[in-house]
Design a protein that fits this description.
Elements lengths: L26 H5 L5 H11 L7 H26 L12 H10 L1 H6 L24
Helix pairs in contact: 2-3, 3-4
Length: 133
């Protein structure tokens, strides 16, 4: 008998591709901010006394808070911490207090705020000079 020719192998039919589901983006990812937009929206809704809060209000609030915090940390790292400690692992509440009292704009913004465990800002006491007679 003659050898049989190899049978043609059929390639299995591929199932039709279903469109891949896109990952649903959160409001925070869409707005490209770090602070949680939905949580801020919930706090605004619960505490502002208004039933309806637009998403843009929450996004604006998150972006504003993010800017203020980044500015505060930037000034703290570069101005308040001792030189050579820019890679310090911790920023203590006292460092924030010193920064707020040192910067005029931050002092005005945080005029009625109190940093917990922030201590007091050291101030120079003028020395009494003896009057010449």
């Amino acid at each position: 008998m003659a050898p049989k020719a190899p049978a043609a192998t059929k390639t299995p039919k591929k199932a039709p591709k279903t469109p891949a589901k896109k990952k649903k983006l959160t409001m925070q990812e869409r707005a490209n901010v770090i602070f949680p937009v939905t949580r801020i929206k919930r706090y605004l809704r619960d505490n502002a006394g208004v039933a309806a809060i637009t998403p843009t209000a929450a996004i604006s609030m998150a972006a504003g808070l993010e800017y203020i915090v980044s500015e505060l940390l930037d000034v703290t790292i570069h101005d308040t911490l001792p030189k050579g400690t820019e890679s310090k692992e911790r920023i203590l509440p006292h460092h924030l207090t010193l920064t707020i009292n040192k910067d005029a704009e931050l002092k005005k913004l945080f005029a009625f705020a109190m940093v917990r465990s922030g201590g007091v800002t050291p101030m120079e006491i003028p020395r009494k000079t003896k009057a010449k007679k």
